Structure formats: structure tokens, C-alpha cells
Amino acid sequence: MLDAVLMNTSDELVAGSLELRLPSGFELVSGGTKTAVALRGGETRTQRFVARGDLGVRAVAEAVFRPAGTPLAFSRGRVFLVQRDGAIAGLTTAQAIDAEAVSGPNTFRLARLPGALEAPVPSPDGNAAVKGRLTWYDANGNLAAGRFVTVELVPAAGGQPAAKGLTDQDGNFQISVAGADIAGKSFVPRFTLGNERWLVKKSDKPYTWEAAALTLAGGSVVDAGDLVLPKGLPSSEAAWIHNTISKALDAFTSRSIEIGWWNRIGIEWPADGDYYSWSEVNLTEPHQWDVIGHEFGHAIFFTGTSSQAGGGQHKIDECYSQSLAFSEGWATFFGGVCHLDRGDADAKFQFLVPRRAPIRIENVPADVCMGEKNEWRVSAALWDLYDTHEDGNDKVAYDFDKIWAWMRKGNRMGSLSDFWAVIKKELPAGEIAAARDSMQQSGVTLK
Ligand SMILES: [Ca+2]
Ligand SMILES: [Ca+2]
Ligand SMILES: [Ca+2]
What we know:
Layout: E1 2-7, E2 14-21, E3 26-28, E4 34-39, E5 44-49, E6 51-53, E7 60-67, E8 75-84, E9 87-92, E10 107-109, E11 111-112, E12 121-122, E13 128-137, E14 143-145, E15 150-155, E16 163-166, E17 172-177, E18 186-192, E19 198-202, E20 205-206, E21 208-210, E22 214-215, E23 220-228, H1 234-253, E24 265-268, E25 275-277, E26 280-282, H2 289-304, H3 322-339, H4 375-386, H5 400-409, H6 416-426, H7 432-440
Parallel strand pairs: 10-21, 13-23, 19-24, 24-26
Antiparallel strand pairs: 1-5, 2-4, 2-7, 3-6, 7-8, 8-9, 11-23, 12-23, 13-14, 13-17, 15-16, 15-18, 18-21, 18-22, 19-20, 25-26
């Protein structure tokens, strides 16, 4: 079932046709793929399509809107097809099907949400300052805070940024500009999808947006308001990636874990596959929170520890080398720490490995290859060490700060057994047996 939510954000009547283009292997169960659309100003309507097809491969449909009377004009949005409750569902940014790009490459305009701006107030340090809040729409279409995004104030007349800052965890920012001759000058707030820990980009171009220019007032904080990134743009989807990676930062900061080792990690999207290579994370689909969590887990593994990984092909339910299974299993485990509930009785992923989805990390299916040469069992063993849901012989729950400290302590570890040797050394003698029991019930054998 695919719901295309059409929203006319203008004041005028919009009429035309909406066409759903399905990928090969998919067909509509009933009705046509084309439908006439007429919406009054401000009106919203849901158009439902019921489709069937094979979701074994990644599938993306396209919704194309053609306004009546102008046969050449059209706009389109991507619809990601996913399995939900046994049926096919669509996931899209393109609630308002939007033009593909409104301005230059990777730079887009921000709109301001309706609402009164606050009058300038005196700034705490006496400098001129700008404040505001950044928001965007998440993959489910809900407004979310634009967290940990770089903000620069660029002179409207051109030139280098006069000041730089970061949005906080609620999307708020306040940047002050030193200098006596600033008052009365115009600046454009520019937002970049990254910070000192990561940068989301396409080739060498980061995703950036600019807000309307504003004029600074001497010694005062000027309010830029609630700024929102429109839906349906490539950068709106890049923002989902940024959101997902923000949770990796949360995993460390919420536990006050030191992250001085964390150098900036490049995130390339869209890329030709999902993988980590040469210190960069490459991604294909922005809504796949668990695939992103896994690939970013590799980046954390190689940036923050001295562990080693074997290479080569790997199938999640088969056995291969211990070192490849360790690095793959750790990456999946880290994705779980970032995105899954520690107390979940059936913790699982959604998009990871469609052939076997959902990948269940608390309860591994019996047909999966046994032992620490299998990544699924490695991730499940780490999960039981961490999770608070007691199942079988799992009666322990070590939080991520502990597990990370052990990872840091290990010297060139290349297997789960290597990691276990570190844990055994660090744990009080009375806790070793319970920790081993907890990990072993996932089908690995530890000495
Ligand atoms: Ca378990
Ligand atoms: Ca546990
Ligand atoms: Ca458990």
C-alpha cells in the first residue's frame, strides 16, 4: 500500500496528473498508475496505490506530477518501497512533490516557519549576534531538530564567513560576531550538514543551505526564527543521514565517553554501494537507519580502536574468517547500540540484509552458521553482553561505556576471542562466568 500525500502549500488551485512509476517486478493490484489531481489552496489529500512485487532487492518507485496546461513542466519525488506488516509500503520525502533542485548544486534555500520573530535583545558579550532554530522533516515526515549542524555567517556582499558555530541538540544556535563595524551589515546564515566529527557530502561538495539575509544590530541578538528545510530535495534526504549519525554521537556523549580520537569522517551520498573504505562511509539510501548505523560502526571501529579486520565477501548467515566476522558483527552491534532499545525482547533491524530481514540480534535464527566465524552470532553475543533483556543464560548488562573501554584497551584484536581475552582480564573474577554464559548462548564458544 503506497500513500502519496499531496499537499498544496500555495493559496491557489493546483491541478494536474499524478503518475506512480513502479520499478520492474512490481505491479499495481488494482486501478491505474495515473490519477487526476485537483487541490484547492492549502488542501491536503492522500492518494492510495496498492502494489505487489518482490522486495528482495532495493526498490525505489517514482511519483511524477504534471501540472495541467503546461505539458513540459513536471516535478517528481522518490518513493522507497519497504515491507511493513507483511505489505508493501512507501516511504518518501516527497510529500509535496518538489522540483529536483531549486538552486545551485547541493545548495538550497531554507524557508522560515510561520511565527513571530523576537525583537533584538542585548547580547551577553556586547557583540552583535544572530540566533535561531534549524528544523527539517525526518523520514516519517515529522518535523525534527537539525542537530549538530555547522552554522556560518557569510557577508551578503560576499567574502569569507565572519563567524562560525554549531546548532545544539535541539537545533538552536546563537552566533556572535566581534567587531565594531558589523552593525547595520547584512549576513546570510549558511548551514552545512556536518561538524568536526563527520561531513555529509556528494563528491567534495558538502550539503549546504542558506537562509534569508539579515541585518545585524550592534550589541544585540537578532532572531532569525524557526528555519525549516523544505521536503523533497536531495538535501532533505541527506539530512536523514545526518540525523541517523547524530545518534552515534549520542551513544558516546550521553555516557560521557571521551572522543578525542574521533577525527572527522566523510559520508558520501549517494554512492555506488553501502560500504566503508579509505576512512569514508559510502551510502546508497538515506532512510536505511540500520545500514547507516552498521557502516558508521565500521568507521568507529577503525577510527577509535586498533582492531583489525579481514576482507572478502561475507553472507550474514554463513561462516568465514574470525576477523571479518568480528568487524562485521561489531558494526552491527554498534548500530544496535545507537538505534535499538536495550530492553527489547526481540531487538531487530529493518533494512539490513533484505534477504534475511529482519535481522534479529537478541534471538538469532537456528539455521545461522555457528561460532565466532559468523558475524550475526558475534553481534548477538555482544548484544547480550550489553542489553538489559534477560534471555536464556544472559543475566548481565554492561553499558556501552564499559564495552567501548574494553575495545580501546585491546591491542590489534582480530576476533571475538581476542576481545573476550580483554574482557576477562578487566572483569572482576566473580563476573567472568556470567559474562561468558551470556555471550555463549548466541552460539559462540569462549575460553
Ligand atoms: Ca540474546
Ligand atoms: Ca544482557
Ligand atoms: Ca539479552
